[in-house]
Amino acid sequence: METITHAAIRQSGRYSRLKIEGLSMELLRGLYRGMVRLRRCEEALMVQYRVADEIRCPVHFTIGQEAVPAALGLLLRKDDFLYSHHRCHGYFLAKDAPMGALFAELFGRTTGANGGLAGSQEISMPSHNFFSGAILSGALSLAAGSAFAFQYKGDDRVALAGFGEAATEEGIFWEALSYASVRKLPLVYICENNLYSMYSAQVNRQPADDLSKRVQAFGVRTFTLFGNDPVAAYEALREAIEYARKGGGPCFLEFYTYRINAHVGPESDDYINYRPADEIEFWKSNDPIALFEERLDHAGLLGRSERELIVAEIDEEIDEAFQFARNSPMPADVDLEALSRSCESPFAERHLPLSSVGDFDETQPVAVLAPY
Amino acid sequence: METITHAAIRQSGRYSRLKIEGLSMELLRGLYRGMVRLRRCEEALMVQYRVADEIRCPVHFTIGQEAVPAALGLLLRKDDFLYSHHRCHGYFLAKDAPMGALFAELFGRTTGANGGLAGSQEISMPSHNFFSGAILSGALSLAAGSAFAFQYKGDDRVALAGFGEAATEEGIFWEALSYASVRKLPLVYICENNLYSMYSAQVNRQPADDLSKRVQAFGVRTFTLFGNDPVAAYEALREAIEYARKGGGPCFLEFYTYRINAHVGPESDDYINYRPADEIEFWKSNDPIALFEERLDHAGLLGRSERELIVAEIDEEIDEAFQFARNSPMPADVDLEALSRSCESPFAERHLPLSSVGDFDETQPVAVLAPY
Amino acid sequence: MRTLTYAQAVNEALAQALELSEDVVVLGQLVDTSGVFGTTKGLVEKFGKKRVQDFPVSENLMTSAGMGAALAGMRPVLVHHRLDFMVYAMDPIVNWLSLWRLKSNGQSRLPVTIRTVVGKGWGQGPQHSKSLHGWFAHLPGVNVAVPATAHDAKGLLLESIFGETPTIILENRSLFSMEEVVPENPYRIPFGQAAIRRRGQHVTVAALGIMVPIALRVAKQLAEESIEVEVLDLRTVSPLDRDTVLKSVAKTKRLVVADPAWRSVSVAAEVIAFVSEKLGRDLASNPTRVCFPDSHTPMSAPLEASFYPDDAAMLSAIRSVL
Amino acid sequence: MRTLTYAQAVNEALAQALELSEDVVVLGQLVDTSGVFGTTKGLVEKFGKKRVQDFPVSENLMTSAGMGAALAGMRPVLVHHRLDFMVYAMDPIVNWLSLWRLKSNGQSRLPVTIRTVVGKGWGQGPQHSKSLHGWFAHLPGVNVAVPATAHDAKGLLLESIFGETPTIILENRSLFSMEEVVPENPYRIPFGQAAIRRRGQHVTVAALGIMVPIALRVAKQLAEESIEVEVLDLRTVSPLDRDTVLKSVAKTKRLVVADPAWRSVSVAAEVIAFVSEKLGRDLASNPTRVCFPDSHTPMSAPLEASFYPDDAAMLSAIRSVL
Ligand SMILES: Cc1ncc(C[n+]2csc(CCOP(=O)(O)OP(=O)(O)O)c2C)c(N)n1
Ligand SMILES: Cc1ncc(C[n+]2csc(CCOP(=O)(O)OP(=O)(O)O)c2C)c(N)n1
Ligand SMILES: [Mg+2]
Ligand SMILES: [Mg+2]
After folding, report:
1. For residue D5, which of D174, D186, D214 has the smallest C-alpha distance?
2. Nearest protein Cα to ligand 2, atom 4
3. How confident is the model over D266-282, as a mean pLDDT?
4. Residue A205: its chain B contacts at CB < 8 A?
5. Are D299 and B340 in contact (CB < 8 Å)?
6. How many degrees, rounded to 5, is the angle at CA A339 between CA A334 and CA A345?
7. For chain C, where are the E strands, in sequence order?
8. Does D38 touch chain B (CB under 8 A)?
9. Which of A355, A253, A323, A368 is nearest to A100 (CA)?
10. Strand pairing of C143-145 and C236-238?
11. Structural domains in chain A?
């Protein structure tokens, strides 16, 4: 696979290499549905965010970055583990976790994926093996640990993490990468390089716009791609996941993409002027859904009416998710201290006898200390 | 410069490429003196370590690794900063810090470089801009900070750190490397790759025996060398330091070498069987001092009697250092709490008036919180 | 008499420090573009990108690099949008900055100021709301401030930047919009001096940070019942102004400690402990504390609201010792 | 009745845990070759390199990888030769492990055991001797043990490995050679139960870790003067067995807390605080504590010796409350 960079993508103009020839209708429909479902979700949440101040937590929307999660959603097994950070809605849905549990979590309700304890940026769904958190770069190191466990147990499960390019600035990323390489862990890293960490451009923070090259030097297989092409994303992810699943070792995929919305919250942050207007325009003109629809139209597949049907179905799901969230109770009377920590040790309780106090001899001499 | 590895060095047999032709007598003498001084120091300390339990702190000797510190000692400016870790005696001496202050520190005396507060593994000598500490990989990140300061102030000073290959396993190394590359800091990293972290071999911990390649991918200039050749070390270090001093940016030198003594303390730890006997033999036969003496003999330079003179001079210095240490008082009545922290703010005291309490209006409304 | 918000006061202190010495530099993620809740607003425009620098998402490096820079004569101010992010920097704080003065036998000076914002409210959740001032107060070798007001935020920050000791300043974001009269010229507030914000003879409330406004409001309310509460604002927890607390409690014989932190092994525990060691038998009632539960912060709004002690909790704590 | 050293007891617990469940794995630098002061000796020979794995010098990764493994059903035991090294792992401890149970709404179980050795003696110096149990006791969501004896080291370790909560066990290396009768079969000691090591009615000494043997020696000495000291070994600081302390102090009315840690904002402060909150006015004398100074550990032998409280310090503290 050729190595590309953000700069190279800009130079080569509007993307024209999306190829849908030979793909099954199921796949095309799946990719389309996944992208639109995520987009509609985010748009609906953005609209509802302020209406009655019901979503009282920081939310990092992901408009423009739908291609990768949509592709991923078609490739994961239920028993694979997926981790992500603050920008997690796409990954949550990709892991087939229910939209209602997502919305209810944002609304802080008991029926939320975490009973309203976590909110958007920290949402998890253990039953679906989906986990996220708002501290960079925990997703990456936790995933390495799960990959370690899968390998240890001889499972053919894969651990994955989806994250932004800034997460690679924390040293723990390089620790995890190095370790995964040494141990050939079944680990897939999915980096959505959207050029920015909040309002800071990648080139101010990293040696170059070629993260994959640095990763490759660690003996890890890398894939570098234009990130708004769902078909290319699908194919690369499939290859990487299979490679890791079969014991080939870790893979790192770098998807060059762009966040259209603000870093956080529903209002635009472009008044800060941290991104050139023509850059924003370029990426708007490379909207992954629009690119895909164009190709579909060109090939005469999945026509407007079929697509409208899909959208209608999604919108109904979204309505239901809002209703579910709004009709769910707020948590009350939670014993936070008990929820924070447990002293249960069920296995020990079952198998080991209690022994309360030994018989310590206070007259014995104190330790002789070794030099180290 | 060609890229070599530990494996390649073993394969090519005893080192035969030490070249002293065309070098000044001053340089040859300096390199020889530096290596032997460090060697005799360590040997003397090892002998004295147990005699009367006067050295009551962990000491990490450095026999076999004299070439790099000796070469470095001829290249540093007083105002350059040098950082290292636990295995620091060579660097201490390279920074021209007095042997007496080193010995007295190990003996825990008030005249030690740190008044006996720090010991061997944490010794510093601020007046000589030498700093070490026993937590990996602090030397590397601190040095990056000093390099930042030099660049900020427009000085032509260089910050250096000397460390073992295991220090690169801490993520902070990659953070520092990346930052130094982005900012083109005047920073020189000197990695003495001796194959082991205590009793653990590099290949169990790192993707490959090619650290420099990984470093290079960060856009940092690298040098990879056989580490027991003081002349090659001198030339590479000179080039790197000049490059950094002139604003070229950071350099990373990887010196393949070997620790002959135990990881810590004066007794051998080879009973643990963590290193193959033939590997130890190979490196003993590549002793940097012996290799150098052979070349000198072959070229008829710095003959036996001249060398004996140098050794005698060194031994006298060592004797004096021991006497200095032993005759110095032990610290007593130190106010540890006061030494740990100061509340002085001399600049503020001189320039800013005191203002004790404002006039807080308790009736004002509490904050309206933004989403983030 | 000019009032500033807390955020503006911090901003002014930074601008004046940058003005006063070329050795001062402000480093942190987005200090140039985000404004860090208004506290770094306009600085890059005034002092340029060299003095006010964005930093990669490498909190660990930033902190030890700050120390390396201080050893080379600078006075860096390191800024974190959340204390939670700064937990990556515990190694340089604990293993390097805090012990360096002792280990160098007093030879090295480390004027490193770490400003960190503590999140509160709007579903900050467990990963965006920690306040570890209790940890830093346990650690020898660092100065630690938790300014409650705009005036103090400015004076303590300037004192720290021009000091010699690594200092951690914790600013709660819910204080940023609160106002106070703040002198225009740069000034200093020494560490280790509590402020007596209200005098009273019936009970001492030793408060910290966001608990100070609550304590003052409740004290005002109780004054209507002729209960005179002495409200101390501890201001710095390292050093801790034990004398002022002891003097006040010796007078009132009753103590409530209000500390915006988890209850166990907190600064509140320390205050009760040292008062009990000195004056325990002289107290008219057992002391008590107002703290967070020993739990991480829940996200959901009603749970979050119940997590943080309010005026009612303060009131009932004070009544319990009367 | 078989005696084992502390190190052997830990070793036996690890071997039995590895035996009891395939989910248990021991990870840490040199756990295969160094023996970690005898505590992992022979394990790799018996269980192989898969179960007992060396780890790169990446403490941060090790800890969060341990959590990722636990989420996938394992029970990792992570080992650090010094607590100081583990400070790199504060982010996973504070931002992930400790808050995960709450944030997952109780759905996730995280049986991660962190064993960490605290250095003492022979010039360990400031960077090799920290004991941060006070920090961990402040942090919600983790269990924290500071076993003082061989028997407890084994039982608490097994309890932790087969528990559900992230646990940090601090072992002081100066205890490793001390012996006690230790049952051969695996057994458990629940967290949150202090041990009453000696009964007495005149004064309560609540001690922790390396202070326990000192307290017992001094108690024995004072018994000759008919002063009967009740010595409590707190054993775990999270949870803390407040009831046992309160019951004892309610009886003796005198309290000394002996905590091997920096004095300020310590577990000792917490014990004095909660006793004062409940029983302050009932005490016959003001409580006191025996701790380290608020200073990092000096290297030089005489300074190091004066840094650690000894029998004389304990004796005078006890006398001061009589
Ligand atoms: C340890 C840590 N430091 C800083 C932050 C603050 N922060 C939140 S999101 C973000 C930007 C992340 O950028 P990237 O990883 O590229 O993801 P993106 O937001 O672009 O999707 C930062 C710096 C954090 N969450 N965690
Ligand atoms: C953060 C940290 N983790 C672990 C250690 C323990 N330790 C001391 S020396 C050492 C080996 C270091 O190996 P290397 O960096 O290659 O240097 P060498 O000893 O080989 O000279 C280790 C792991 C430490 N000092 N600091
Ligand atoms: Mg990004
Ligand atoms: Mg090494």
Report:
1. D174
2. D85
3. 98
4. 182
5. no
6. 145
7. 3-5, 24-28, 52-53, 75-80, 113-118, 143-145, 167-172, 179-181, 195-198, 203-207, 229-233, 236-238, 255-262, 288-292
8. no
9. A323
10. antiparallel
11. 6-344 (3.40.50.970)
Which atom of ligand 1 is found nearest the CA of C127?
25
A123 touches chain D (CB under 8 A): no
Comparing CA positions, the residue from D214, D141, D200, D203 lying closest to residue D172 is D214
- The three-class DSSP label of residue D108 is coil
Please give the structure tokens belonging to residue A322. 């809002």
Query: Would you call D151 a catalytic residue per the annotation?
Result: no
What pLDDT score was predicted for residue B368? 61
Indicate if the pLDDT at residue B323 is higher than 70.
yes
> Which of D127, D109, D43, D100 is closest to D71 using CA atoms?
D109
Report strand pairing: D52-53 vs D24-28. parallel
B358 touches chain C (CB under 8 A): yes
pLDDT recorded at residue A362: 87
CATH of C195-321, one of 3.40.50.920, 3.40.630.30, 3.40.1160.10, 3.40.109.10: 3.40.50.920
- Read off φ and ψ for residue B156, nearest 5 degrees: -105, 35
Instruction: Name the strands in the sheet holding C113-118, side by side, starting at the edge strand that comes first in the sequence.
Output: C52-53, C24-28, C75-80, C113-118, C167-172, C143-145, C236-238
Residue A332, min C-alpha distance to chain C (Å): 7
R_g of chain A computed on alpha carbons: 23
Residues 77-96, chain C: which have Cβ within 8 Å of D?
84, 87-88, 90-91, 94-95
D61 pLDDT more than 60: yes
Chain segment A151-168, per-residue pLDDT in tens: 999 999 999 999 999 999
Share of chain A above pLDDT 90, in %: 91
Question: What's the rounded Cα separation, in Å, for the pair A259 and A287?
Answer: 10
| Concatenated DSSP letters of B105-123 | HHTT-TTSTTTTSS-STT-
Chain centre distance of CA B363: 59
Residue C125 and residue A122 in contact, taking contact as beta carbons nearer than 8 Å = yes
CB C261 within 8 A of CB C133: yes
Chains B–C, number of C-beta pairs less than 8 Å apart: 238
Q: Which residue has the tokens 């993707």?
A: B207
Average pLDDT over residues A131-147: 98
Q: Are B369 and C122 in contact (CB under 8 A)?
A: yes
Report, as ranges of residue numbers, the positions in chain C whose pLDDT lies below 70: none
Specify the length of chain C in residues: 322
Please tell me the distance between residue C85's alpha carbon and the centre of ligand 1 in angstroms: 10
Q: How confident is the model at residue B372 (pLDDT cuts 50, 70, 90)?
A: low
To 5 degrees, how large is the angle CA B138–CA B139–CA B142?
A: 80
Summarize pLDDT for A37-59 with one digit per residue, the tens: 999 999 999 999 999 999 999 99
What DSSP string runs through C85-112?
A: HHGGGHHIIIIIIHHHHHHTTT------
Rounded to an integer, the average pLDDT of A103-126 is 98
**Concatenated DSSP letters for D260-284?**
EEESTTSHHHHHHHHHHHHHGGG-S
So what's the pLDDT on residue D23?
A: 98
**Given D80, D81, D128, D133, which residue is catalytic?**
D128
- Mean pLDDT, all residues of chain D: 98
Could you check whether D3-181 and D195-321 share the same CATH topology? yes
DSSP states of B63-101: TT--HHHHHHHTT--TTSEEEE-SS-HHHHHHTT--HHH
pLDDT for A366: 78
Output the pLDDT for position C6: 97
Q: Do D91 and C90 touch (CB under 8 A)?
A: yes
Residue of B nearest to A175 (CA): B171
Residue C318 to residue C204: CA distance in whole angstroms: 9
CATH number for the domain formed by residue range(s) C3-181: 3.40.50.970
On whether any CB of chain C is under 8 Å from the CB of D117, the answer is: no
Q: List the domain boundaries for chain C.
A: 3-181, 195-321
Predicted-complex ipTM score: 0.98
